Every structure is written in structure tokens, then in C-alpha cells.
Amino acid sequence: MSVIYMLLTISICVAVVFFFVFILSVKSGQYDDAYTPSVRMLFEDELVTPKENKTTNDKIELNK
To answer: Which residues cross the membrane (predicted)?
Structure first.
């Protein structure tokens, strides 16, 4: 039974260390995306689609 407590304690300590290293890497910018902003401008026209304005269409129908 004492082996289970020892393994549980060691695994929690390892998990805390990995979590701490993960937080440090996120704060240092390790996971920042440096590629997408340079490519986004090439596909910007495809992402933006004009939306119809409902209020304009309603006003036109009311005026008829």
C-alpha cells in the first residue's frame, strides 16, 4: 500500500513540474503563431464576404 502512495506522490510532483514548464513556455511566447499573419493577407479577400443589410432590404420592401 505504501508503494501506491509513493507512486501517487511522484506522479503528482512530475505533473506539477510539467504544468509549471508549460506555463513558462506559454508566457515566453513558445506557442505564438509567427507564420499565419504573414499568409493571412494573401487570403484576406476570400475570408471577408459582404453581408446583406436587413434594415435596408426591409425599407425597400416598405417603400414599394
So the answer is: 6-26
